[in-house]
């Protein structure tokens, strides 16, 4: 079935374990023909939805526009087919471009070689017609080309985002091992954060989780602080439509009636988080406190806690077990009536929390396989909780 002239296929890439939250976001944006893949979600779109996806999706890393696909049995077929494409519609000899390649299967086993052959095919085409050629620029290219190959099937896509969408534009300072913004947003969506209660992160580090929680609660678009997207350099960029998309999304921003609090025992972490909050213009909406776990007193009423404690890479094993035991004590003693979520790659240390999780998800923090666990810190006895559940 052919697409309508103004519609095309997009692929939103994400992190392993966040595919379902991304599907939910795309449904809310009005995407159709949604297909969940591995670390990605494909969907049908027009230019308006492509702009919206880049500006509003919190759990996407990049939005790739499908351009063409063909079969290539070897490097010569790859070169010939790349040269047949309508590059003159996308590029001028004065523009720059870059090529990213993901190749798997038995035919093309070296991604860098595929990128090299693709580059040769494009520049040879321009040199033959114009006598000059566009240059490669990996930092700020005018066109970002994405090649995906599986065995002999070659898909050519155009990167409409540019730099990864996790680079929101508000994080100017970092503490140790900061959590990726897309992962932070994905964890909040997995926790079913509805902005209907207080939010706390008692190990806030650079402040990413409280900032993402505030942006979600106040409906601030994920790309609100970002200055540039790759589609702005495309020949068919529509500045008027882009302004309309931004205006519509920005008009839905709202106030939040509960508290959002970040705390950390490190003075440096609080200093870094303060800088990022100011950059995000959220310093009046999020409270930061330098506190040890035992000193934390949550606000009254229901609340949600999400924390990203240190993993085994940063602490000795004995200290790590003690820390996770302290987390459990803090939850049991200070957070009755709250919902608590914890992400960690140290599955043994998680056992020292001393509470049984009600839900668990598998997610990845960079290369580390993690568990994201939910603890219902109920008030009263275990029997009371069982009675409420039934």
Attribute tags:
alpha/beta; 8-stranded mixed beta sheet; 15 strands; VC0802-like; 2 domains; elongated; Rossmann fold; disordered C terminus
- Unreliable runs, pLDDT <50, ≥5 residues? 381-390
End-to-end gap:
49 Å
Which radius of gyration do the C-alpha atoms yield? 24 Å
Task: Name the shape in a single word.
Answer: elongated
CATH architectural grouping of the largest domain:
3-Layer(aba) Sandwich
Number of helices: 11
Output mean pLDDT: 93
What order do the SSEs take from the amino end to the carboxyl end, as H and E?
A: EHEEHEHEHEEEHEHHEHEEHEHEEH
Largest sheet: 8 strands, mixed
Fraction in beta strands:
15-25%
Stated plainly, the CATH topology of the largest domain is called: Rossmann fold
Number of separate strands:
15
Instruction: Work out the count of structural domains.
Output: 2
Supply the helix-strand structural class. Answer: alpha/beta
Strand neighbour order, sheet with most strands? 2-3-1-4-8-7-5-6
Provide structural commentary.
- The protein is an alpha/beta fold and 390 residues long.
- The chain is built from eleven helices and 15 strands.
- Strand 5 (96-104), helix 4 (111-130) and strand 6 form a beta-alpha-beta unit.
- The longest helix is centred in the first third of the chain and has 20 residues, at 111-130.
